[in-house]
Amino acid sequence: MAAALAVAGVLFAKRALFLWRLVRKAKPTERFDDIPGRVENEVTIVLGQKKLFQRLLPGVMHALIFWGFIVLLPTIVMALVGAVNRDWSFPWLGAQGWFMALVDVFILSVLTGIVMAVWIRKVVRPRRFDGSHLGEADLILALIALVVLTLLGWHASRIAAGMNEWPAGASFLSNWVSGAIPFPRVSERFFNWAHVLVILTFLVYLPYSKHLHIATAAINVFFSRTRNRGRLEPLRFDVPDDEMRLGVNTIEQLTWKEMVDSFSCTECGRCQDVCPAYNTGELQPIVGNGVPEEMVWDCVTCGACVHECPVSIEHIDHIVDLRRDLVMMQSSFPQEAESMLRDVERIGNPWGKPQGDRASWAEDLGVRVLEEGEEPPEILYWVGCAAAYDERARVAAESTVKLLQKAGVDFAILGARESCTGDPARRMGNEYVFQAYAEQNVATLNDARVTKIVASCPHCLNSLGKEYPDFGGQYEVMHHTQLLAELVRDGMLSPARGESEITYHDSCYLARHNDVRDEPRELVAAVGKPVEMPRNGKRTFCCGAGGAHMWMEERGTPINEERVREASETGAETLAVACPFCTVMLDDGVRSMGKQLRVVDVSTLLVESMED
Question: What are 457-467's pLDDT values in tens digits?
Answer without folding.
Answer: 999 999 999 99
